[in-house]
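hey so i finally got around to running the thing on that chain from the lab meeting. sorry it took forever, my laptop kept dying and i had to restart like 3 times. anyway pasting the input first so we r on the same page abt which one it is
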Amino acid sequence: QVEFVESGGGLVQPGGSLTLSCAASGYTSDAYAIGWFRQAPGKRRESVSCINISSGSKFTADSVYGRFTISRDISKNTAYLQMNNLQPEDSALYYCIVDLHPRTGQLWFGSCSNEPDYWGQGTQVTVSS
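ok and heres what got predicted. didnt touch it at all, straight out
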């Protein structure tokens, strides 16, 4: 069983910053990537940023590129998402995800797939004046 400990969400004003963290455990050594998806009410879920656990190669969505930075600490099985210059359109439930090595049927966008293998419970990010 894969367990996630997610933290760092909250309420912030436009232009503010938050840092999300995700500590994941219980997955195999074949784990390939860790990162975040997000979903806002009335919108489809979308990838935000993912990082290859072994190589550190990153994918960052165009909508947040230059504002969000992902990193990981392998020794702690933990990933971090530094979010700067947050905007109202960033408001969403952010889900930490873990992907195993690519499997049949998955589509990949850099280090993010369209259907991650494991999902955390999510943490709310709200950007509002």
